[in-house]
Specification:
There is one protein chain. The chain is an alpha+beta fold. Helix content is 40%, strand content 13%. The protein is built from 8 helices and 5 strands. The protein has a 5-stranded mixed β-sheet, with helices on both faces. Strand 1 and strand 2 form a beta hairpin. The chain starts with a helix and ends with a helix.
């Protein structure tokens, strides 16, 4: 083997090793040539309305909501479960819809930002975000609001977080608790302090 062939072989190995995990997953999920995708019927309730969709079994919940039901409030940000822009509430728990397959939610009740409030009748959390200027560009806001609503439900249910002082005691709504529980929702505009103020206000009214 010539020196040039050795260098080319090494370069190809480095490129393969540097391939992001998501790219590797996408490559693995790509249909094999000549094989049709596997389809399945998925029944789920979204914002109180029952739907039955016929989907490729590899369809994420986020794509099912956005592409098949045209509910585009949930945003596709990083598509890696790192930014939280796709957060929805499934069976009462907040999840990253980009990391969850739609077929895993057969029979589930899903709530998206469209199911929380309308422009004419905002959810209390949406009103608080507006009042405290808890957003700038607004891209992450649907996920932030869905997550914030679920956070208060988690605290009310007594679920501790990593910053809870006593795991056996009922957690309190503090700025530290809110920041920790909202840490999976990123805001590139940096409206974090206003978001904490908005959630604190809603929590105070519920207390």
């Amino acid at each position: 083997m010539s020196r040039r062939e050795v260098l080319l072989s090494g370069g190809a190995t480095v490129v393969a090793g540097a391939m992001p995990a998501s790219a590797a997953l996408a490559q693995a999920a790509a249909p094999e040539p000549g094989r049709a995708p596997v389809l399945a019927e998925v029944a789920l309730t979204v914002n109180g309305t029952a739907h039955t969709l016929r989907l490729d079994t590899r369809t994420t919940l986020l794509d099912a909501l956005r592409e098949h039901l045209k509910l585009t409030g949930s945003k596709k940000g990083c598509d890696h479960g790192q930014c939280g822009a796709c957060t929805v509430i499934a069976g009462g728990r907040r999840i990253n819809a980009c990391l969850s397959l739609a077929v895993m939610h057969a029979g589930d009740e899903i709530t998206t930002i469209e199911g929380l409030g309308t422009p004419q009748d905002l959810h209390p959390m949406q009103r608080a975000f507006v009042r405290h200027d808890g957003y700038q560009c607004g891209y992450c806001t649907p996920g932030q609001v869905c997550s914030a609503v679920a956070v208060l439900e988690e605290i009310e249910a007594g679920i501790p977080s990593h910053v809870s002082d006593d795991l056996d005691a009922r957690p309190r709504v503090t700025a530290d608790e809110i920041r920790e529980r909202m840490s999976g929702n990123l805001c590139r505009c940096g409206a974090y302090s206003n978001i904490v103020d908005a959630i604190t206000e809603v929590a105070g009214r519920r207390a």
